[in-house]
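Researcher: Structure for this, please.
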Amino acid sequence: MTPQSEPPPAASLTFAQYSGWACCWCAKSLLNVVGAVSAGIARGREGVHVLDVEVYACPDCAPEHNRQGGTQ
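Model: Predicted structure, token format:
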């Protein structure tokens, strides 16, 4: 899967993805994965409620700059 620069919208995430238990892009479980990284903030709103949440990516889907420990 080709990584994207922005995580998917919060409203489109599964419960596991929203909770940080699964990759935000491929939905692979992160419970026993070494090397999962923050993928950023999934943004969303439901009326007046803000659904923004930090989401995580598995090593296969992690953006290149996160895999190398910082931006270049």
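Researcher: Any notable elements?
Model: The chain has a mean pLDDT of 85. Helices lie at 15-19, 64-67.
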